[in-house]
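For the sake of transparency, this paper describes our internal protein records without simplification. Because each token names a local backbone shape, the row as a whole describes the fold. One such record is reproduced below, unchanged from the form in which we store it:
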Amino acid sequence: MVSTHPGRSVLPLSIALSDNPRTRPVIEGRVAFEGLRLIPTAVHPSEMFWRQLRYGDFDVSEMSMSTLTILTAQGNRDWVGLPIYTMRKFFHNEILVRKDRGIEKPADLKGKRVGVPEYQQTAAIWTRGVLEHEFGVHARDMTWFMERNDNRSHGHSSGFKSPPGVSISPVPLNTNLGDMLLNGEIDGIVHYIAHNNLVDRSRVDLSGDPCVKFLFDDREAESARYYKKTGIFPINHIVVIKRSVYEQNPWVTLNLYSGFVAAMDQVRKDSLAWMAPYYEMGLVPREVRRTVTQTPMPYGLNAARRVLETVTQYVHEQGLCERRVALEEIFAPNTLEL
């Protein structure tokens, strides 16, 4: 413990976060965390998860919900989850396909070659879950190509193996998913990542390429359809703390939670950027955006239980862990009633 004020001690904690409107007040130090002095690093999630899983670089960070679920199922207790959700998105509406492959609807993906940065990443799990449960397209209906090699993959830390009946081939190190799509070596990509980081190799911007399109022409309408039918707004990342830190200082979890709630409140006051999820879900028209006062991304376990139980179900049914993991195994005991 170190003291920054006479008679008042604070606990310094390193924290890694992706840079987005919900985390920016924390990264920029605009939120007070009682009893804590956070030392922030803004880093791309792909790199963040790899660094945490391989080297344990940070006391607190975001973590892939799927990888945390897989590790928990295996008995790994290195991390304690907090019901703070730093990434939520409708990932299935990001599927990219070549225009010349006759892919006009999800069912047309059957028999196609599909790329993915990492098979076990949460974005891919949500996408496959929606394809299966909403459109009857199973993972085994496609041939998969995974960009991340063992050394840089999250699955390297969890002993990833291809699920039974699913064909997954590694992308050669001398190429990447973006180039393979443009060269016609694959037909589509689930969750394309071209941001500069130490893990993902793709760099080409596919957004304006005349050969490529989104599978769903009206992505917002598809997101609204899915949300109105299921009530699910997918969660991708949660916040974790090293168990060694938690066991020595169990009070830290609730102090972190309170600080992130305060950060969300600040975002709501400072900017309209937090409203973007509403538009995706088709919940409110843009002209009434200033009248909305509640965030569509609430923290806490009770508000998100159904979403979290759905993704842990998908992790299990997609063959990535041998049993269904209960949320009580993942999250800190003193956060279960939040």
Notes: Residues 91-230 form a domain with the D-Maltodextrin-Binding Protein; domain 2 fold (CATH 3.40.190.10). Residues 1-7 have pLDDT under 50 and may be disordered.
